[in-house]
Specification:
The complex is a heterodimer of chains A (263) and B (608). Chain A has 263 residues and is of the alpha/beta class. Chain A has helices at 44-51, 74-80, 97-103, 113-118, 121-139, 159-172, 189-204, 217-223, 241-245, 248-255, 259-262; strands at 4-15, 18-29, 33-37, 59-64, 67-68, 82-84, 177-181, 209-213, 226-231, 234-239. Chain A has eleven helices and ten strands. In chain A, the strands form two sheets. Chain A has a six-stranded mixed sheet, with helices on both faces. The radius of gyration of chain A is 20 Å and the shape is globular. Chain B is mostly helical and 608 residues long. Chain B has a two-stranded parallel ribbon with strand order 1-4. In chain B, strands 2-3 form a two-stranded antiparallel sheet. In chain B, a hairpin with a 3-residue loop joins strand 5 (405-407) and strand 6. In chain B, helix 5 (94-120) runs antiparallel to helix 7. The chains are: A alpha/beta (263), B mainly alpha (608).
């Protein structure tokens, strides 16, 4: 059995009386691509928010590389090596594209006010490294985000490019795990096909472990090693895409019960 | 914006509409607005109080200027149309003139009504300026009938002139505007020009332009008009080209610095104070003190997005710390340190105060944070005044006999020598500019911007937002405390009344009017507001305006928010944000062109 990188143990959260997630229990191994699917309101994004420290679970534990993530601020979670993207793209719209990927390296760098004021050698070296790493990450998406784009504000990008920049920004934090929240939502078939390939590359070439929320079943089928299905905050199925897609509980969650049973 | 407003170029030109084909309801509305504006300005007593300040002897004073611009502006505005592409546009003609006259005449009638009421009724109880002096100024001492008829005719004439601007060509409009601005501006700068001309041995030029008893002479005004025309015709085009070139270069490499400009400014900063007289030096010192504050606040508000309404607290901490450390008559603790040693204590206290106020406040966001900082600004002042602290701070009596600032063995800067104080201020402003510039383009500065853009996302991207904001708060506090320490040494005394909430507001207005997030903008804001109108307690060039300062601040702020929310000299990012739609369109077109090139080059087949 390979190393358990991210281990979610009996995770529950309630908002008021609503069980947003109850007893979620699964793990992600290093180098895996795991998809989390489920109908709207199933608790997928809440699950991401909990891993990244934006929502505190009511009970249960999140263990990353043998250490609990509970009680950490979002920035500390990111520093431990878990980066995320957002479902409704949230870039720093008035910062340039390069600045977007430079600023997300914040927790990997350490030059402070004094370094900037006195332009120390360490400061200049670090700035250079930040810039180079930023350009390298942007280069992952071909020529779309580099060149004349570098100094343009993120707000001018097309929708698909904004999604790409979100992923680049997460990559720039030098994480081990990337949480992708609906990476291909709103993209046309050609673009999502291309991005599916890139998600595979993220693991194969960059060595990231990926947890992905996605509604596009084509994408889920093509890249996932494992699929977790949530409905009403509960895990209703886990396994390979083929196992999950033929599971009656999953079909019911998506399509509803057959008419004769419903009464 | 000017492109869309320009009536000469875009659109289809249709024949002029008939002179009486008017939207009468609109004209009456604007006429009433004009009347209300004239009455309001009259009742603020501007015409009377500013009558002594002459612009062109014996034709025009600031007092009458405060009235006559209203019909001109509104007479012009009423027929102004925003022209969009493809819209039918009518030739300008009599219709515009009639509209201008109507608006002006209605406005004049309003003022005539006021004159008649001034004569027959006494409303001096709620309206303090309801008196004979105002009547005298409005009717030129010739009686009510004369005054009333004069203003109706004059206002109609001015409205006509306003409407007539539509009929003139763009260049004629520019010329007239340039002449008017040059004359008014030169006249407002009279006292400073007097002072400067002495330093540069240019008294002859000053005497050629100005009358002895104040105000431009008629020939002076003509000389200025000729100069303005020459400027627009000869240099106007070049200045525009230069600006376009600079903007283009900035777009390409936003962090690059204009070395030539920087050297010029540095040389001017070193040389100019030597030629300036007492008055101008003092004026620039005030500008510098507020610039220092505004640069600090610019880091806090402009970069990190923390709306701090109690920024004066740090100014007070700087002033009081310097006073206690250096003054021999400080009531409690009195170490009588030299100023340059005291400045280290000042920095230390500013950091302590920044952390003390910042730590509880910084976790809040948006409006809540603004309100709480507003409270802390007052808390610091009230603490200074309280019995509890008055053993150290002197309470309402303040701390007196603060010696000048001595700079480690080089020189002693005395408050009585404005030139030396100015050099000191320039030194610290240079430090503040350097700090702002370096921090903006650093890891810390980027983190601040990310926090300003979206705090939750910044947090999720690994930025410790509480620490980042606290750092911005403390850097801002240190810059403000420098200003406070120089202020104490310059004035020689500190009182809690110098640190009222109004100071915070003025600093914020400087940042907003000048251009948030841009150093040159903040400098322009400080020059215009503190230099010309005056600071909260400091007289500006238009000393007569001090009574109307807050009114003008308010009017200016509203006008800026409506017409130019990005400030006088805007930050590229901010103006982009505020004109998002126009900007996005341009960028989209540009990117479209580029993408087409890319696809053609890579031979990629676009999906059907």
């Amino acid at each position: 059995m390979s190393e358990r990188l991210l281990d979610i143990q009996n995770l529950s959260v309630t908002f008021g009386g609503l069980n947003a997630l109850s007893d979620l229990d699964f793990h992600v191994d290093a180098g895996e691509i795991v998809s989390v699917i489920g109908p709207n309101g199933a608790g997928k994004t809440t699950f991401f928010n909990m891993i990244s420290g934006m929502v505190t679970p009511t009970s249960g534990d999140i263990v990353f590389k043998g250490e609990s993530l509970l009680g950490l601020d979002p920035n500390q979670v990111t520093a431990r090596g878990i980066a995320r993207t957002f479902q409704n793209v949230r870039l720093f719209a008035n910062m340039t594209i390069l600045e977007n990927v430079m600023v997300s390296q914040h927790c990997r760098t350490k030059q402070g006010i004094m370094g900037a004021l006195f332009q120390t050698g360490g400061f200049k070296r670090e700035e250079q490294e930040i810039r180079e790493h930023g350009e390298k990450v942007l280069g992952f998406f071909g020529s779309r985000l580099v060149g004349f784009r570098l100094n343009q504000p993120a707000s001018v990008l097309s929708y698909a490019n904004r999604r790409r920049l979100e992923i680049a920004r997460a990559m720039a934090t030098k994480p081990e795990v990337i949480l992708l929240d609906e990476p291909v939502a709103g993209m046309n078939p050609k673009e999502s096909e291309e991005l599916t390939g890139l998600i595979g590359k993220l693991r194969d070439e960059w060595g990231f472990t990926i947890v992905m929320i996605e509604h596009d079943m084509g994408v889920v089928r093509d890249v996932s090693d494992r699929v977790v299905v949530l409905d009403h905050g509960e895990t209703i199925a886990q396994g390979s895409y083929d196992e999950v897609s033929s599971d009656p509980a999953v079909i019911e969650a998506y399509l509803g019960r057959p008419a004769e049973e419903a009464s | 914006m000017s492109e869309t407003m320009n009536t000469d170029e875009a659109g289809v030109l249709a024949p002029a509409r008939g002179a009486f084909d008017q939207d009468w309801r609109k004209l009456v509305n604007w006429g009433l607005i004009c009347a209300l504006a004239l009455i309001f300005v009259s009742l603020t007593d501007m015409p009377d109080k500013l009558d002594k300040r002459v612009i062109v002897e014996p034709l025009l004073s600031m007092g009458y200027l405060s009235l006559i611009w209203i019909p001109v502006a509104l007479g012009n505005f009423v027929t102004r149309e925003v022209v969009l592409e493809g819209m039918t546009q009518h030739k300008k003609g009599l219709r515009e003139l009639v509209a201008g006259v109507s608006v002006g005449a209605i406005g004049g009638a309003g003022l005539a009504l006021l004159i008649w009421l001034l004569d027959t009724r006494d409303l001096s109880d709620p309206l303090v300026n309801w008196n004979d002096a105002l009547l005298e100024v409005l009717s030129f001492g010739e009686g009510v009938g004369y005054g009333a008829i004069f203003w109706i005719l004059a206002s109609a004439g001015l409205g006509l002139a306003g409407g007539a601007f539509h009929l003139l060509s763009a260049i004629a409009n520019r010329l007239l505007l340039a002449i008017a601005l040059t004359i008014v501006l030169t006249a407002s700068l009279e006292s400073a020009l007097d002072d400067i001309s002495e330093g540069f041995q240019l008294e002859w030029l000053f005497e050629a332009l100005f009358e002895k008893k104040g105000g431009l002479s008629v020939q002076g005004a003509i000389i200025l008009a000729v100069f303005a025309i020459a400027w627009v015709l000869v240099l106007g085009g070049q200045a525009k080209r230069g600006r376009a070139a600079v903007t283009a270069r900035r777009e390409l490499s936003p962090t690059k610095v204009n070395t030539v400009g920087l050297v010029l400014i540095a040389v001017a900063a070193v040389v100019l104070p030597m030629f300036l007289g007492r008055l101008t030096n003092d004026l620039f010192t005030n500008v510098g003190l507020f610039l220092l504050l505004a640069l600090g606040l610019n880091i806090v508000v402009g970069l990190a997005g923390i709306l701090d309404l109690g920024y004066v607290a740090f100014f007070a901490v700087g002033g009081y710390t310097a006073a206690i450390m250096t003054s021999p008559s400080s009531p409690g603790l009195s170490p009588e340190l030299p100023w340059w040693v005291a400045i280290f204590v000042v920095v230390f206290m500013a950091i302590v105060a920044g952390l003390f106020i910042g730590a509880p406040v910084i976790r809040m966001r948006g409006d809540y944070l603004a309100i709480v900082t507003l409270g802390f600004g007052e808390i610091i002042r009230l603490t200074v005044r309280s019995d509890w602290a008055s053993g150290f701070t002197g309470g309402a009596q303040g701390i007196l006999s603060i010696p000048g600032a001595d700079i480690v063995g080089v020189a002693t800067v005395k408050g009585t020598d404005p030139q030396q104080v100015l050099y000191l201020v320039i030194g610290f402003v240079a430090i503040a500019i350097y700090v702002s510039w370096r921090l903006e383009n650093s890891r810390i500065g980027r983190a601040w911007m990310a926090v300003r853009e979206d705090e939750s996302v910044a947090e999720a991207m690994g930025i410790n937002t509480v620490n980042s904001k606290l750092q911005a708060f403390v850097v801002g506090a240190i810059l403000a405390s420098f200003s406070g320490a120089i202020f104490a040494a310059k004035v020689g005394s500190v009182f809690e009344s110098s640190f009222k909430i109004l100071v915070s507001i003025v600093i914020l207005v400087i940042v907003i009017v000048g251009g948030m997030g841009r150093i040159a903008g903040v400098a322009a804001g400080a020059l215009v507001l503190v230099g010309i109108l005056g600071g909260p307690n400091q007289p500006g060039l238009l000393a007569e305006f001090s009574e109307f300062k807050l009114l003008i601040y308010g009017a200016l702020l509203i006008w800026m928010m409506l017409k130019r929310p990005e400030g006088l000299i805007p930050n590229v990012r901010r103006s982009r944000e505020l004109h998002q739609d126009e900007f996005l369109q341009d960028a989209w077109l540009k990117a479209q062109a580029n993408d087409d090139d890319d696809e053609a080059a890579s031979g990629e087949v676009a999906p059907a």
